[in-house]
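Example record for the data management plan.
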Amino acid sequence: MASKENTRIHPETVRMAEYIRAITAAGSVHAVGIEFISPIQCMKRHNSRRCKGKMRITPRADVIEYCCTDCETCGIIANWRGSEWNLSEFASGLTAPGLLTVSVSEDEYKALRKVLLLSPKEEAIIAGAVWTDSHVVITGTEDVFDELAGNVAFEANHSPGTKKQAALDSVCEKIEKVLET
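Corresponding structural encoding:
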């Protein structure tokens, strides 16, 4: 019988799985062959410091290619189509007519990615966010943003940390402002 210590998953393994999951989800919601820069931060470490680069992702027919914008650490994810991380069936929110966009800070985006109560369509627009020079742009339909605003407000109201709550409150305000116009 294996001891309890041997069944624990190393934290670095969990971080790597989350990293691959995030890249797969991001790549799965964008059009094949169209490169974009995701707000996902590189995992590579240089002299005990984490690389500040973002992931340049290019979805292909059978694989998702990714490469860091700073250190050029690259990889390929294959066999992702059958995974639970494939959000392509919910990606219509990124290509529908009449799309809305919301710009958030990197910290707000990180808080948004940790919201627990999200529909697959909400997950798809968050995963499909694009990094621009200094902020994250999230694109989706009015219906998806309306649903997202409610779930973000709920999470903010039940957040034990004031930093996370402030970030989510700010995201909620930005979504509501876009919905009002």
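Summary line stored alongside the record: The CA atoms of residues 41 and 75 lie 14 Å apart.
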